[in-house]
Write a structure and sequence with these properties.
432 residues, alpha+beta, Chitinase A, domain 3, five-stranded antiparallel beta sheet, four-stranded antiparallel beta sheet
Length: 432
């Protein structure tokens, strides 16, 4: 199976193992002191110090000034608590991650590093003992949390046909769309309605504004003070198209100048502050190059010698090239992919719809050309390209994107509140 890899919510901590992996295995000695009790489990000093090391590498890589050590420690502990609450709940309610899902997740991370999966894993192994296994465990953890979120939060979000129609109509009215590079700070408000707590949150938000206005880097302030799950990434939201942003954020950003912060504004989640780094206008029309391709997949089964499977695949290619056998017929008889029934035909493929190794090889082929043997995490492939075209997105595809965009907007409005609800249901005692 080589269909599109579902993008999952992976914290930047996972990516930073590749950058700072040695810190995880060589420089830390497990410490047994409990720093937090979370439900029936604990977080130890070792867990906390390990995460602090990785996060510092992350902040340095992002060229973000390190926040105050005590503040950083508190933020990271909060992140560990939230992650443990969600992971424990996922385990208790039967969420499991298959080895294939982990492999897909690893491939997604490797792709983000512009590396093949095998090169990426080799680099991790060179980092030292235990780094690769720690990486796999982190990917599995993030996938479990993502699956929990999709089950308990995403599944409850509904998008009506009227909302989709309105969204598409607005795009027709405004063929150009703005994109914003922005960051945010969230100061949560206690849900009890206590005015003292509300005033305390407002004072914290005012303190953040004062530090920013005195010239302190917004990302550093966010890393110290923000209650959002992306605080340790400096609150960075990355480039977002206008329709991908919550309406409350967009209302502020449209009137802001570059390198300017917003005033404090309120949502059901708490008080927010935005910072606008950059803005650009893009043509709304989306045209992509599509490739019509077929393939034959020979899987490497458990305990099989990979070199023997590669040789067997090479023999199949020789039959196609030298023997002139029909590609579709051979695919029907030998391919292990779901597409075998259609003679290996995968239809028209756009960018990102296959794994990186497959896409790279496919893009290098001329129409009618048969590839060399290509290795991916699914096995060995032989690829043939039937044609290429530039295609505007179909109406069905546009509606699907509209639905996804509206769902994502609603999801972001509820995400922080969902995490807080999960925490409110769990016994937490901090022992720092």
């Amino acid at each position: 199976m080589i269909v599109n890899l579902k993008v999952f919510r992976v914290s930047l901590v996972v990516f930073l193992i590749f950058i700072g992996g040695n810190a995880l295995s060589d420089n830390l000695i497990p410490l047994g002191r409990v720093v937090a009790v979370v439900g029936d489990g604990v977080i130890t000093d070792y867990d906390l110090e390990k995460e602090i090391n990785v996060t510092k590498e992350q902040l340095r890589a992002n060229k973000t000034l390190l926040p105050n050590e005590d503040k950083l420690r508190a933020q990271i502990l909060e992140r560990l608590i939230s992650r443990k609450i969600l992971l424990d709940f996922a385990d208790r309610t039967g969420i499991r991650i298959s080895s294939e899902e982990i492999a897909n997740g690893i491939a997604q991370v490797a792709r983000g590093q512009n590396k093949s999966t095998s090169d990426f894993l080799d680099a991790l192994e060179r980092q030292g003992t235990g780094v690769l296994e720690d990486f796999r465990q982190r990917v599995e953890t993030e996938l479990k949390i993502d699956k929990l979120r999709r089950r308990d939060l995403d599944s409850k979000i509904r998008v009506s046909e009227a909302e989709i129609n309105f969204f598409l109509a607005k795009q027709v009215e405004n063929p150009d769309k703005d994109q914003y590079l922005t960051a945010h700070i969230l100061i949560k408000i206690d849900g009890s309605g206590d005015e003292v707590e509300r005033d305390r949150s407002m004072e914290k938000a005012i303190g953040a504004i004062q530090r920013i206005d005195q010239g302190e880097d917004f990302r550093t302030v966010a890393a110290e003070l923000s209650d959002a799950s992306d605080a340790l990434e400096g609150g960075l939201l990355g480039w977002r198209a206008s329709e991908q942003l919550p309406s409350l954020f967009l209302d502020k950003l449209t009137s802001m100048k570059l390198q300017q912060r917003s005033d404090i504004f309120e949502s059901p989640n708490g008080f927010h502050i935005l910072f606008l780094y950059d803005k650009k206008v893009l043509d709304q029309k989306i045209v992509v190059e599509q490739t019509h391709a077929s393939h034959i997949l020979i899987k490497v089964e458990q305990f099989e010698d990979e070199n023997l499977v590669r040789s067997r695949t090479q023999e199949v290619r020789d039959r196609l090239i030298l023997g002139g056998e029909d590609f579709a017929t051979v695919a029907k008889n030998l391919s292990s992919d779901f597409s075998a029934a259609n003679g290996g035909d995968l239809g028209w493929l756009g960018p990102g719809e296959t794994v990186p190794e497959f896409e790279k090889a496919m893009n290098q082929l001329a129409v009618g050309e048969i590839s060399e043997v290509v290795r991916s995490q699914f096995g060995f492939h032989i690829i043939v390209v039937h044609g290429r075209r530039d295609a505007d997105l179909s109406d069905d595809r546009k509606r699907a994107i509209a639905q996804q965009t509206i769902s994502q907007r609603k999801l972001e409005n509820r995400f922080e509140g969902w995490i807080q609800e999960m925490r409110d249901k769990t016994f937490v005692e901090i022992k720092l």
